[in-house]
Amino acid sequence: MAADTHDLPPIAILGAGSMGGAIARGLSRSGLAAQGVTTTNRSLAKAAELDGLADVTSVALEADPTGNTDAAAAARVVLVGVKPAMVPDLLREIAPALHPGTIVVSLAAGVTIATFEDILGDGVAVLRSMPNTPALVGRAVTGLAAGSHADDAAVATVRRLFETVGTVVEVPESQIDALSTISGSGPAYFFLLVEEFTKAAIGKGFAEPEARLMAEQTFIGAAALLEAAGDDPAELRRRVTSPKGTTERAIAVLQEARLEAVFAEATDAALARAKELAAGA
Questions:
Q1: Same-domain check for residues 256 and 164
Q2: Up-side HSE of residue 21: CA atoms within 13 Å toward CB?
Q3: Would you say residue 251 lies in a domain?
Q4: Is 18's pLDDT higher than 60?
Q5: Range of the domain at 132
Q6: Has residue 127 been placed in a domain?
Q7: Are 152 and 200 in a shared domain?
Q8: Is residue 123 part of a domain?
Q9: What is the pLDDT of residues 139-171, one digit of tens each?
Q10: 273 within a domain of the structure (yes/no)
């Protein structure tokens, strides 16, 4: 039977760890992967975690040593999810198996598009991506940068792929590291705030389960309200902050702590480290 024109082309995810596995699950849920997704992992145990997903074939390299090249040869979109230090060797391994026009997408932090293009040559469209961990629940923000051989059609295909696990922001590669300090690291900032809010509640005499419930659900509810309302967050904050009320007093303390400078300094530190990692430090 002919493939639905809305389907994504055959996909391979080489090194389907936490992020690659989340993408495989999103593709499976989406119904867009009828032409197939092949995932590879080194161990049988890791590969077994993706067994049973609709439209997904999970391969263990310890049982099938040619799994990476076989998957790459059968795919039209190849996601590279191995650890950054392993990327060059994997690219050299699969390069002879790739069909002209194949789209290769990096999931590896700190590995440049130039590294991919130098090894794979001109016949391959390369894109660099930076998804974040909410991909696990279908709410990722993915930064996407196109290489010199990636045309509009290739970018559109990869955008559709990542939209199965959330939203996509297209940026030039020069902004990928900066994006990582916001959306990539951002979930950790949020979790830290929940941790500290929970501690504050415990300090007010609440038991840990109650404190955690209040902190988590307050942030989750506020995020849902922000999404549903569509208003600027500053406006929503003003609506909660009654003049001369308790919230106004608390907000004043937070503003005196110069949160704007703190967040700027924190993201600057993350960006500096990203540049160090890209340089091999």
A1: no
A2: 13
A3: yes
A4: yes
A5: 11-171
A6: yes
A7: no
A8: yes
A9: 999 999 999 999 999 999 999 999 999 999 999
A10: yes
CATH of the domain at 265: 1.10.3730.10
Interval 65-100: pLDDT, tens:
999 999 999 999 999 999 999 999 999 999 999 999
Q: Confirm if 184 and 110 have CB atoms less than 8 A apart.
A: no
Domain CATH code at residue 18: 3.40.50.720
When divided into structural domains, the chain yields a total of 2
- Same domain for 83 and 160? yes
Give just the sign of the alpha carbon dihedral 121, 127, 128, 129. negative
pTM: 0.90
User: DSSP characters for the chain?
Assistant: -PPPTTSPPPEEEES-SHHHHHHHHHHHHHT--TT-EEEEESSHHHHHTTTT-TTEEEEETTT-TTHHHHHHHH-SEEEE-S-GGGHHHHHHHHGGGPPTT-EEEE--TT--HHHHHHHH-TTSEEEEEE--GGGGGT-EEEEEEE-TT--HHHHHHHHHHHHTTEEEEE--GGGHHHHIIIIITHHHHHHHHHHHHHHHHHHTT--HHHHHHHHHHHHHHHHHHHHHH---HHHHHHHH--TTSHHHHHHHHHHHTTHHHHHHHHHHHHHHHHHHHHTT-
pLDDT tens profile 191-217:
999 999 999 999 999 999 999 999 999
**What pLDDT score does 280 carry?**
72
